[in-house]
Amino acid sequence: MTIARADSVRSAQTHDSEARSTSNRYCPAMTTDHRGEIENLLHLYAEAIDAGDFAGVGELFAHGRICGPDGSPIATGASAVTKLYESTTRRYDDDGTPKTHHVITNPIIEIADDATTATGRSRFTVLQATDEVPLQVIITGGYRDRFAVVDGRWTFAERVMVPTLFGDLSRHLLIDAGGPSRDAPS
Question: For the whole model, what pTM was predicted?
Fold first, then answer.
C-alpha cells in the first residue's frame, strides 16, 4: 500500500509539474465565460497552495491583496503574497508541499453589468495527512473575494479569509492561527 501511495503521489507531482509549466498557468486568457474563468481562479489558488507553489499563489494576486477576517490587508501584490505564504505555511522536505488538499465549494459569483468586476464567496475545507498524522480536516471557513479584469484577464483584486472551524494546524502553519491547538483544553 505504501508503494502504491508513493507511486500515485509521484504521478500527481509529475502531472502538476507539467501543468504548471504551461504559459499563463495562473492567468488564463479571458473568454466570454466569466463565471467559469472566475471559478478557475478559485481552484487555481487551491492547486497552487497544495503544490507548495507559493510563487504561483503570489502570481494570482499580482493585482490583488490578501486580507484577514476583518478585511484588513495582510499582503498586497505578487511578491508580498509569496513571502506571506513562505513565512506562514509549512512545506515538507520530501515533496515540497504542505501535504494539504484545499477543497473549494459553494461558489457564489456576481458579475457586474459591465463584466469588468465581480464579487464572490465560497467555502473552503482543508485536509492534511503527513507521515505523523492520518488524514484529517484541519480548518474550514469561507472566502469573500473581489475580482477585476486586468489586461484582458480575470484576476483576484482581494481575498478576505474567514476561518470558522479549527482543527490541528500545528503541522500546516508556521504561525499560531488563533484556533485551538491539539493540546489546548476544550
Answer: 0.80
